[in-house]
Amino acid sequence: MIEQVFREEHGRAVAVLVRVFGDVDVAEEAVQDAFAEAVRRWPEHGAPPSPAGWIITTARNKAIDRLRREAARAGKQAEAVLMTATRPVEVHSVRDERLRLIFTCCHPALGMQARVALTLRLLGGLSTAEIARAFLVPEKTMAQRLVRAKGKIRDAKIPYRVPEAEELPGRLSAVLAVVYLVFNQGYGGSEELAVEAVRLGRVLKELMPDEPEVLGLLALMLLVESRRTARRRDGELVLLDRQDRGLWDRGLVEEGRDLVRRCLEIDRPGPYQIQAAINAVHSSGGDTRWDQILRLYDQLMAVAPSPVVALNRAVAVAEVEGGRGRAGVGGSARPRAVLLVPCDSC
Amino acid sequence: MKLYALNMIQPVGDPPPPEVLGPVMAELAKIRRDLEREECWVFGRGLHGPEASTVVKVRDDDVIATDGPWAEGKEHIGGVTIIKVEDLDAALKVAARFARATGLQIEVRPFQGEV
What we know:
The structure holds 2 protein chains of 2 kinds.
Chain A: H1 2-21, H2 24-45, H3 51-72, H4 76-84, H5 98-105, H6 112-123, H7 128-134, H8 139-155, H9 168-188, H10 191-207, H11 212-225, H12 228-231, E1 232-233, E2 236-237, H13 250-266, H14 271-282, H15 290-303, H16 307-329
Antiparallel strand pairs in A: 1-2
Helix pairs in contact in A: 1-2, 1-3, 1-5, 2-3, 3-4, 5-6, 6-8, 6-9, 7-8, 9-10, 9-11, 10-11, 11-13, 11-14, 13-14, 14-15, 15-16
Chain B: E1 2-11, H1 18-37, E2 41-46, E3 54-59, E4 62-67, E5 75-85, H2 88-102, E6 105-110
């Protein structure tokens, strides 16, 4: 119960508290204190009617207590932070501040590794040890990375706000890149990271339901994730055309395909949407429509060319031509180039 | 409000010819006027090259002054502008104007504290 609330509400609580106190460290510690209190109290007294509200109120009170103690020890900064926190928090009508937090964590003035670490720590609520394990670095290194990143937010005064419309496209793609990097880190091994990336993708969709690339990224992740079980057999990677389709998670496939349809309606294509569409074609029943996939790769080459995309496009070309050849002379002409590149990684 | 230093990172070597420099200086003057109007301008000026600099240091009890920069580099700070703006995003916007006008890299460095 507490763990579930923690996963779902950590980001929201930190975001609200950063807004109240204007300081990431204060917010983070307060939310940690509040969850620690929950672990002590809830099993005995039962969970409160609104667990999220309880966490935010408790965290706010903990932060104020802590700041008072520090102010009493003549900490001028603590006093200043306390001044900003005198406005009461209306917990029940509390606005969702997570969007600000996301854009702060993924600010381009921070290094990519710092953005990923901050996003997982503050928004995802993963512990420093968990993040360190997932990225195969010592915990101390990850802790230092987080301290440095938070230090830069404070010292350089990286703002806590959603970018204006004119900067939004660039800033949004920085956010999406962070989530996709987390997902790809989870692709090879850590299932936990893939799950976390999908969860972040859902949060982004909830906060920005009309941004097609947000929907596209979520669709892409869902469709790739739907094949997780089918992708491995006895520890070996099983490529797409050899996978047992019965092992695909139909729920995730349907959700992903619905999102792709929604993207088509919005009609503002971008790299994530196109990759999602390619995966949607692969996820449809029956024979793979390589002609459709080739057209999508043509589009992808136009908006986001890369060697990997070019290679995958070449595979699609071979499949389309091989398919034609097979129709004429039988199956033997069909190239097996598709085995080289799993479409999942396009 | 917060103070930021915008350090213009300049390659070592001769300045560009007047026909190139002229329009650049005109654009820099325009940026300055805009910043003054928005009350963001604090200070700004180009620096002479490192060959004009003198280094002062203490050795034992004596203070000695020596010629030249303390380290040779391919780049140096060619000019400093200090601006007073709300936050890093605002500073980055100003830096983008300088970068566009000069074609040079701009280091945006926050001063400690708020003003």
